[in-house]
Amino acid sequence: MIRLLFTSAALFAAVPVAMAANTTLPAAPAPVSTAALATAPTVPSAPKGAPAGAPTKLVEPHLHVLKAGKPAVRVALTFDACMGKTDMRILDTLINQQVPATIFVTARWLRTNPEALALMLAHPDLFELENHGLNHIPAVDRPTLVYGIPAAGSPDAVAREVQGGADAMLAHGIPKARWFRGATAKYDASAIAEIRALGFEVAGYSINGDSGASLPAAAVEKQYLSARDGDVLISHINQPTHASGEGVVKGILDMKAKGVQFVRLEDFAAKGDDNTTQQAAR
Ligand SMILES: [Zn+2]
User: Fold this and answer.
1) What value, to the nearest 5°, has the Cα angle with vertex 99 and ends 242 and 122?
2) What pLDDT does 116 receive?
3) pTM (2 d.p.)
């Protein structure tokens, strides 16, 4: 109970990118001591020349797709399916409007959303499914907290999170994943190198569409309308009761009316910073 209170408080202490999209906390990876939880910083950063054991420096990588060039505007919509349910307002809109998107799924979400998964798999022309991990645990290989959530905490635990997500996807009949995006979209450099060595590129983003499904609809719509050529948007497709989803729908319709060209990550060479992709961002 003490830990629950602590993590709840930490959750509200930071502006979440991806964690507010969760209705439940992920299962804590073993073993993380109570003392470590109590002393770890929420958003750590290491000073230059910091000794071993210093706070872990986390990065939140950017990602862009190849620009279309003026006057065209090419944008990749990405959605995280962290856990919980499916926002059918968004999924129906993508299908009805024939808008392609890249969906990052966890093993947890796959287990409880067979109908939504079947819909996505029935439209391979629209949906690219990629890896959001096994248990929605931040892919950081040292014990720390990210938005109050215990990170994987070791290279072995990062590997379990990444490979476990990929294996669950294959077991559900999804084509082999090429991209990984961890819970909270934050990593440390050594975890990024490990994920790359496991055969995945790490999917950042360039526009935060919904701040973890926490933004009101009008604010989400504004984020969508701010997209420029080459941008990669991140939003959530697992919060059907949040107002954010309404803004996502409006944003998609607005962009379509403006003639935006929607693409998936696999369609155009996507380039990220922080060594997240094979082709480095300029
Ligand atoms: Zn997530």
Assistant:
1) 90
2) 98
3) 0.83
